[in-house]
Write a structure and sequence with these properties.
Radius of gyration: 21 Å
CATH architecture: Orthogonal Bundle
Largest sheet: none
Order of helices and strands: HHHHHHHHHH
Low-confidence stretches: 1-6
Number of strands: 0
Number of domains: 1
CATH topology: MetI-like fold
């Protein structure tokens, strides 16, 4: 990314030459992370609920171990986690900078958070949901997909919305290790070079993006609630 700079500030007509590529990097980063988080975190959340005393196949020891790992993942601040797993990130991706390097800690941080949200969404369901499925002779898979997830769908949408916003925030932090995106642009141009135009632009685009995501999530929750 490059632009002609007059003084410390990038001229407003040229701000988009930096902002658009950075924003697309953020969208790519968050998109990849959320796909993995929804899959891995969703399965983990389903297992957390259904292996508990409230679930379809209680397994106290398994639930305790899984819950313990999830709690560890939620315990560390993202910046600490990102720094702590740099060797693991390099082993998995072959690099410690760029989008690929950012995806690993973001997935590790986002998965436990989403898993707990899914578990709570399922736990809020009436006990009758499981009972009706069992009485109807449905398999565990059928009860989970057609009863539990179907009834908890609005809450899961809200969880996805909340997690997506968190991942945007994490992507900005990941910019400090050269992951690219809006965070990197804000740090390198807005902070280190005292480029006020870039800093103002990144703040505005982050606020607008999060507002749109939250509004969309709230709308989908209202449309799917019954």
């Amino acid at each position: 990314m490059s632009a002609k700079v007059l003084g410390n500030d990038t001229p407003w007509p040229e701000v988009h030459t930096l902002l658009i590529p950075a924003y697309l990097e953020t969208v790519t980063m968050v998109g990849i992370v959320m796909v993995l988080v929804i899959i891995i975190g969703g399965i983990t959340g389903i297992l957390l609920f259904n292996t508990s005393d409230f679930g379809l196949f209680p397994r106290r020891r398994f639930n305790y171990v899984l819950s313990w790992f999830v709690n560890i993942g939620r315990s560390l601040p993202f910046l600490v986690l990102m720094a702590a797993i740099i060797p693991f990130t390099k082993y998995i991706t072959g690099t410690t900078i760029g989008i690929r390097a950012a995806v690993v800690p973001m997935v590790i941080a986002g998965t436990p958070f989403f898993a707990r949200l899914v578990e709570n969404a399922l736990r809020d369901l009436p006990r009758e949901v499981n009972a009706v499925g069992l009485v109807s002779c449905g398999s565990f898979l059928q009860i989970i997909t057609r009863a539990q997830l179907s009834e908890a769908f609005p809450s899961i949408i809200a969880a996805v919305t909340l997690n997506t916003i968190s991942m945007i925030e994490y992507s900005a932090i990941a910019g400090t290790i050269g992951a690219g995106g809006i965070g990197y642009l804000a740090v390198v141009y807005g902070y280190q070079r005292f480029d006020h135009n870039i800093m103002i632009s990144t703040i505005i685009i982050l606020i607008v993006s999060i507002q749109i995501i939250q509004w969309t999530g709230d709308y989908l929750v209202r449309k799917t609630s019954h």
